[in-house]
Amino acid sequence: YPAQIVIPTPQLWVVSAPVAGMVNGLSVARGDRVRSGQPLVTLESPSFVSLQRDYLHAFAQDALAAQQLKRNIDLFEGKAVPQRALETSQTEARQASIAVAERRQMLRLSGLSDAAISRLTSETAITATVSVAAPQPATVVEIVVSPGQRVEQAAPLVKLARLSPLWAEIAIPASSIRGIRPGARVEI
What we know:
By secondary structure, this protein is an alpha+beta fold. 37% of the residues lie in helices and 24% in strands. The strands form 3 sheets. The protein has a 4-stranded antiparallel β-sheet with strand order 2-9-7-4, with no helix packed on it. The protein has a 4-stranded antiparallel β-sheet with strand order 6-5-3-8. A two-stranded antiparallel sheet has the order 1-10. Helix 1 runs antiparallel to helix 2 (83-109).
């Protein structure tokens, strides 16, 4: 009977572009085994620059709101400002913290590690380059893009798979199915 060797669906996944951009380089080829965190594709992305700028802006606003809150707490304790001013400062500080958390999460979704986000925060060095890494150890089964190609966010870049075990799909005609028994030996 004709048979086909296939990769089980749970062992196959697609690595997609975290942001829109242009493929700047490929670090792997079809058939390569990759480890978790290994770079696969490098993208140049204006939208990634915007995400970093927005994060740094939110971070600066959070620091300013925290300073304002501290100042208003001191003034409130000295009875120099009304409680309403203190409550307004508390709300603004909370909203600024939420904005930083949101922007940080957007950077994580774009492939930036916590260490890279901390470095961005301390050095304010914005980059246009995004490195897309392998999420887990696997084998490259297909490369969907090529250098110089423009891709949208969530566009497939590379297909990866875990190649053990593999399945054999055997096409058995319905008329012969009665001759097949559980545990029967199969030769391929």
